[in-house]
Amino acid sequence: MSGPDPVGRLGRVWFDPAPLWELRCAAPFCSDPVLVVADDERPLRNPDRTVLADEARVAGWQQAAPGRWLCRSCHQGHDR
Are 43 and 22 in contact (CB under 8 A)? Predict the structure, then answer.
């Protein structure tokens, strides 16, 4: 299950049988830090990190370092 804890499990640790990855901007004060589904505001989540990396490149995100990504606006404003 993804999303908030189901009723009756709040405050407990539980195993998610289908974990999903989500990509967040590495810039500390990013105003829009999550890679979202195109034409939507929901975060893009996938069990395969390579799918997220491909989608991030299409959306204009740049890999700053291994495991660190910058969204389009933070990358454009970042000193190189």
Answer: yes
- DSSP reduced 3-state for 35: coil
CA dist., res. 62 & res. 74, Å (int) = 9
Distance CA 36, CA 43 (A): 4
**Token pair in block for residue 32:** 């829009």
CB–CB of 48/34 below 8 Å?
A: no
Q: Which two tokens stand for residue 20?
A: 């999903």
Task: Check: CB of residue 67 under 8 Å from CB of residue 43.
Answer: no
* pLDDT tens digits in sequence order for the chain, 80 residues long: 456 555 555 566 767 788 889 999 999 899 888 999 877 888 999 999 999 999 999 999 999 999 899 999 898 866 54
